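Backbone-to-sequence.
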């Protein structure tokens, strides 16, 4: 499933290509009803495209909004206008004067009201990529929750936009075992986690892909192979130390971690986690340390808040 950087990049690209233009909005597949959006007109003006977590909002005139959630299979395809005839699998076609975007396979593609949009946003946690994000709710949740930090980061009501890859990578960079209870994470480390996620997600927007092994160095135009782009996710050995990468299921999603860089004492595991522990997980749960790396240690000294361009205001 696309993570937050992909959604924010799509919003940026679609704003640049379509915002302010009168668009033809159709559903060649016939599974989306845009009558409430167009009011019977051939074209309707797109005001802006907003991204929040893994959700896209296309805000049109008269206050109507199209909500998109790509899910596992949703993808946009761009073509110049006028476009060729659409495939029957296209859920939504946005045709502008110069550019057309075809959407296939989304989980959600619906016209919603302002109230429905507000209700949806109220269910989401803060998004580290938005300049209006307030991380206090994230810190408060971590401070009181017994939920494993690896599960908390995947809960979109806790923090929006983080997926399996960024979850694995930020926990590795902070040397945190995914089964550590959220409330056991020191507040200072939680703050570094929020900052680091924002920086890495923003870098992903710029690079159009996830690269966590190069600090904040721009990688557009430079060859970084898939095997060199991450520390632990999808790897057999840790990019950092060369040790084995372990895997186990946590709330039906596979967690990736380095068995050496992210230790956790078995004695501290919750009873239910102990009962569910497999041999491989027991082997990777070794005595840990109370020392956590700082952002300077991870990314190098500097003004991290200004290391990458800020996201556009909405």
């Amino acid at each position: 499933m696309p993570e937050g950087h992909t959604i924010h990049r799509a919003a940026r690209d679609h704003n640049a290509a379509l915002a302010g233009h009168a668009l033809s909005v159709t559903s060649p597949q016939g599974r989306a009803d845009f009558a409430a959006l167009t009011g019977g007109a051939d074209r309707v003006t797109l005001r802006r495209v907003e991204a929040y977590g893994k959700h896209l909002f296309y805000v049109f005139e008269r206050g109507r909004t199209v909500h998109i959630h790509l899910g596992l299979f949703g993808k946009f395809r761009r073509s110049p206008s006028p476009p060729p005839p659409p495939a029957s699998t296209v859920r939504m076609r946005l045709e502008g004067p110069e550019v057309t975007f075809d959407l296939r396979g989304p989980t959600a593609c619906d016209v919603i009201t302002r109230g429905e949009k507000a209700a949806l946003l109220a269910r989401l946690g803060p998004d580290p990529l938005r300049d209006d994000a307030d991380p206090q709710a994230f810190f408060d949740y971590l401070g009181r929750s017994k939920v494993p930090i690896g599960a908390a980061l995947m809960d979109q009501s806790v923090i929006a936009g983080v997926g399996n890859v960024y979850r694995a990578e930020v926990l590795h960079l902070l040397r945190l075992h995914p089964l550590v209870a959220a409330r056991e994470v020191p507040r200072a480390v939680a703050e570094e986690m929020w900052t680091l996620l924002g920086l890495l997600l923003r870098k992903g927007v710029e690079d159009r892909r996830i690269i966590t092994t190069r600090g904040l160095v721009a990688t557009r135009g430079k060859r970084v192979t898939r095997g060199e782009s991450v520390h632990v996710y999808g790897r057999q050995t840790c990019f950092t130390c060369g040790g084995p990468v372990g895997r186990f299921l946590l709330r039906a999603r596979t967690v990736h971690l380095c068995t050496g860089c992210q230790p956790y004492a078995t004695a501290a595991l919750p009873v239910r986690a102990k009962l569910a522990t497999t041999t491989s997980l027991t082997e990777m749960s070794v005595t840990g340390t109370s020392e956590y790396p700082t952002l300077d240690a991870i990314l190098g000294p500097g003004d991290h808040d200004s290391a990458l361009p800020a996201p556009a205001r909405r």
